[in-house]
Amino acid sequence: MKTYQGSCHCGEIQFEIDSELKSALKCDCSLCRKKNALMVGVHESQFRLISGADSLATYQWNMKIAKHHFCKICGIYTFHRRRSKPDEYGVNFFCLDNADIEPDQLQTERVHGSKLSVAD
Ligand SMILES: [Zn+2]
Predict the structure, then answer these.
(1) Domain residue spans of the chain
(2) Which residue ranges of the chain lie beneath pLDDT 70?
(3) Which of 39, 54, 57, 102 is most buried, taking the most CB atoms under 10 A from its CB?
(4) Residue 9 half-sphere exposure, CB side, CA atoms within 13 Å?
(5) Looking at residue 115, what is its pLDDT?
(6) How remote is the CA of residue 48 from the centroid of ligand 1, in Å?
């Protein structure tokens, strides 16, 4: 397991994850499609927010279980609390500053967020 540093565009938000960085999640829900999100799933014990807690904004929609965090200064989606696995974070692969693998080398796991239940 390696440690990868992540940040938003303006640098306010800094975090670290411990990961093998072998696979990534691609979700087809309406939010992930619009973000074009490619995410790395990590257990909360493998995630550390280093700085920027005050600049972190949270977007919730539909069932309001997942917490989608983004930087309120530069607007970049950094990571979110997953709905299907609440003890995990989904981390924006493109926010990792020292990723040593290209996105097309990652094994892509499809998540069918669009098939999850929706709020009335
Ligand atoms: Zn920022």
Answers:
(1) 2-115
(2) none
(3) 39
(4) 8
(5) 84
(6) 17
